[in-house]
């Protein structure tokens, strides 16, 4: 595992020697060596907190290393700002897209370095060069179009186009597919292949291990600020990678499925959205059943579960709970009836990041922490710490939500509801952006719910996940339900066939 | 590693113990500022440090104090209310019209003034929640409308002739200590603090300001709470108008111009973030006291009112800069 060697005879464009980084007295990177050659994709894997972000921020000039050396194209490389890195040809594409929605694609690509002619903005030149950049990525859209309203995948590609227009020779992609469906992911991968053939080096960070096999040439696994393993091929069993990441051998990722009871809890009939995002959807979920909803991004799954939870309006159709029509008009109504939603976007819809955990928990449980409208801090604390313990959240009540890992945040989002003993729990993308080690504990939580007799609905773009956790799977395509498969007949092929039919 | 984690969590515990929700609204900085200011003025002037001067300051901050409480709630939900100064004027004119012109009893007149004020808040709240008008614009419009209405009542002229006891409420110090107007302010402070710390409704404001979508998905009726908040803010401005009428023993439609800026300044100096979700009434009370003490002290030092305005501006900058600096070092 000597990292000083050249890779397959190629010369490294970027090499890192013994990079250390400390924040205050805590060292978070303990001497990392890394090489990236032109035209190769290096997958950088590791759990949250393993040091991937710190490392990529050092390479992209966002933070400075405490010690160690980097060389770029044979010369010493020490970017002090992201601008330095970009000027040298190193660009990082962040997980959270940083585009300005009201500006045109071309303006977004050239923001801060507009082409000028005679002291004025040269719009023609800007559009022409933006067009060229888009074409290079196979995007057939006008550069004059505003970014607002473009799909996440297109926006991702525009970010990449932006980097390429600045002559980037090394791209760091941080979870580029986190918000993409499999069609969009395919499109992105085609473009990555194309960039590879043009000699662009890529550091690829992702939690979706199935992807790695398709796209990466090499795999570097980090854990606790150290590089723990390096695979010279991406053809490594996922299990092996996961074990390297978590540092222990994994039990079965998905707990065994239990048989649900016969009584029907949730019944949805002919549900249609006023915006047409889903039409005429009918299904029912039994007590203790885990009901998966699969489909491509844009199939209407999120909108469907949001409507069932009262968060979005319903045009026609009914939601019945234990035989009673309770079609909700507001989230409050659904919650009082025992239907709760764990929303898709944790940071925007699930928790208030700069409020403490106990406050976050209290917001959903005013009845439990107050007596006829009066709250006491003591009750809030007690209630929060009980639930924190019960659901195995690592943290204390007075800690801010944004000081915790994604996995623990998600546990709070789920835990804050469970004290109400809901009848139905709707989870939308429950493990998005959560690392592998923490995922299995979310799955355990989901199974625990089902075991208590809760009817659980799981929406997920991660096929392996829906297949692994669900008793039955409904597949949606373009707003319509195209089939419901039993666990025994569902596999990635049968689901994908339906989803793309 | 374990021990650093422990100290970390202890630090977090300590810092969040002092922070927002269940304490002084993150106002330790402003509180220290207030104490230093008082200490300086006690040394620099002969007359600052006296019980009598302290009571004077309380009298002087009554109107601002009550308006700033309402403004705190609005800013907590990440809103803004520019109409409070005009609402104060409207309340005063309605009071004068009902009591002096229509010769109705004072209790009914005050009730009418408060209802008129609250209605302005209801309209602003509905504009914001139902018609999606940004708070800045909605309350800017209400600022103009309320001012116009206040002027229409008497065609711009003042009303005098309140019963004599009304003005005495702002002058006579019961037991040599509290005027009725100051007592009303203190009651408003206590009720607001209790509401914010111990009522569901108060905690909901923090959730809405922190992230309205999270709050909505948590089952909180965000629209209703928003309308109620603007209504409460307007009603408190109306109450401030009644107290100002008592202090002046007259009402005129040009009262309260630019008071909204003083109220916002007090809230911001007190550590409530304009982004919403953090801060609170505790900090605002300190903010109001800082402005009150500063004005009083500068007067005692014979500083010109123009220079006073400059100094208050500097204090706002200082307060917000200190807050930002604290956050960056966190």
From TrEMBL, chain B:
Gene Ontology MF terms in the entry: transmembrane transporter activity
Location(s), subcellular: Cell membrane
Major location (coarse): membrane
CDD domains linked to this entry: TM_PBP1_transp_AraH_like
UniProt membrane topology term: Multi-pass membrane protein
Gene Ontology, cellular component aspect: plasma membrane
Name used for this protein in its record: Ribose transport system permease protein RbsC
One Pfam family hit: BPD_transp_2
Ranges that cross the membrane: 21-44, 64-95, 107-129, 175-195, 227-246, 267-294, 306-325
InterPro entries xrefs: ABC_transp_permease
UniProtKB keywords: Cell inner membrane, Cell membrane, Membrane, Transmembrane, Transmembrane helix, Transport
